[in-house]
Amino acid sequence: MRTLSLVIGFLLLAPEALATGAAVSTPSPSGTATVPLDQLIPLYTQRQAYVPPPPTEALVKSQLNARLSTDALQVDASFQVEVLAEGRWTQVRLLHLDADTYPTAMPTLEDATVGVVDGFLCLLTRKAGRHDFDVGLTVRASGSGPERRAQLRFGPEASPVPLQLDADTSIFTLMEPLPTSGEGYAVYPVQGVVRVGWRSASSVSQSTKPQVRPPMEPRIAEATATWVSTLEGRASLRVSYTLNLDREQPLELTVPEGHKLERVTLNAVPIPVEEATDGVLKLKVAPSRLGETSGALEVVLARELGVFHLSGRLKLALPRVSWPVAELRARAHFPAVFNYRREGGSLEQVDAADAAAVTASAPLPGKVLHFRQYLVAASSPTLELGYSVDISDSYFR
Q: Side by side, which strands form the sheet with 249-254?
């Protein structure tokens, strides 16, 4: 068998002494020894593969921001954890969660997990590396009457840092004077615990009666009407109302004579409506969303005007609503082979340049006429038009 004679005193040290770095009281042995080669190679490989453990498993940096509410302290915690250990589970305890402390927002990480273990907010991982994440916490306050107190404790692996507190002094009064930090206050930890005490301000007394907003007078800020007619006289009328209201309100709408109701939508949602014998529709309208003060009502009607002749007269009308209308804009799209002139009614004709606010979402055929009326109250706007064949491009002109 082949052997090799080497000075190997350093290889024969106990593994426990190498791992702990303990001092050896006796002098290191010296001299020579003959060891078989197949036994020497494993000893040398074992020495080369040994890596001492890191001095600490992880390093933690943290930042805490909080704001006061009536019965709790809302905390936003940001952590930067540098894990040093590799190939084994590392648990980093960041915060101690008391019975009154609840996590409200937890992060999702690739190579690590953040959760609650044995009453601690912990980071768990098997890989070394840096992890940045945010956690939301609610710390329920204790105390009776207007006074409240809350506390947050740091975990063993997290160094205590000051808490940046945002407190509205018009609502809350801090029970201890705190140094200011930017736009808020700095709460310094004492023995690893951050404590905050506050009470309701005298201006916010529990006996104060809530202010009730007076009901809003319902009205229609703007109405837009569009007539579209074919040469055979089949006409459609679409009227859109912009409602100003703060709660559900009744609204009556009278359909003009000769018109047929096709559709009614409230806030872009079709609603079932039965037309009464006298043409009066009784509706319940409401804002588009709870807490808002606006809504939208659209009514679509149809009517037979009769076949257009070489000349004639059109009598048009819009629905009458029970609410006042601040401004009404109307637009008519009639066959292009005729000339039209206003001959009566409450709607006044305006130039196309002055009616730029009334534009269709898609172009419609025919000649376009624009009309307008202000301050419509409990009446049906009307319009009378005379028409005759347009011979402006005829050769016998």
A: 280-285, 249-254, 320-321
Q: Is 298 helix (H, G, I), strand (E, B) or coil?
A: strand
CB 84 within 8 A of CB 58: yes
Collapsing DSSP to helix, strand or coil, 354 comes out as helix
Three-state secondary structure call for residue 9: helix
**Above 70 in pLDDT, residue 188?**
yes
Structure tokens at 389: 């064949």
Q: What is the pLDDT of residues 149-183, one digit of tens each?
A: 999 999 999 999 999 998 888 788 888 888 887 77
Residues ≥6 apart with Cβ < 8 Å to 249 = 218, 284, 285, 286
CA 218/CA 250 separation, integer angstroms:
10
| Residues 6+ away with beta carbon under 8 Å from 262 | 236, 300, 301, 302
- Domains in the chain and their CATH numbers? 58-200 (2.60.40), 219-389 (2.60.40.1730)
Over range 299-325, report the average pLDDT. 90
Nearest Cα to 167, choosing from 66, 64, 63? 66
C-alpha 299/C-alpha 270 separation (Å) is 10
Q: Copy the structure tokens of residue 343.
A: 């001959």
The CA–CA distances, whole Å, from 277 to 254, 257, 265, 281 equal 11, 11, 21, 10
Tokens coding 348 = 């006044």
CB atoms closer than 10 angstroms to residue 45: 10
pLDDT at residue 11 tops 60: no
